[in-house]
Amino acid sequence: MIFIVIRIDIRPEKKEDFLAGIVTYSAQVREEPGNLVFSCFASVERPEEYAVIANYVDQAAGEAHVSSEHAQWFFGWLPSVVASVPKIVYQELPDGVGWSEMGEVVLEGS
Questions:
Q1: Does an H or E element contain 5, and which?
Q2: Which of 27, 102, 103, 104 matches a 20 to 30 Å C-alpha distance to 83?
């Protein structure tokens, strides 16, 4: 599995443009074969900071994503709304490694 986290700092005056663009883009990415997760989250402490979490089944799915028409649009559009170049963490995880429940948290009534 490919595990990606991207930190994006947007320009405050471009917030509405960013939100409209990321909602559309997220929906397109989620429809891709091989996409497992694509979600964008707002920071609760810094209103200009967003994080994107993306998971793909393998490197081939990630490569197909990057070459897609909507990804090429996104990469060209993003500089119009960001305050700095986004930061990325990209990890290729071994087979069988992925999301698991957090052992330190137990739900009430369980």
A1: strand 2-9
A2: 27
Q: What is the pLDDT of residue 98?
A: 87
What CA–CA distances, in Å, run from 42 to 34, 36, 48, 86, 93?
A: 25, 20, 8, 14, 25
Residue 96 has pLDDT above 90, yes or no: no
- Domains assigned to the chain: 2-92 (3.30.70.100)
pTM: 0.90
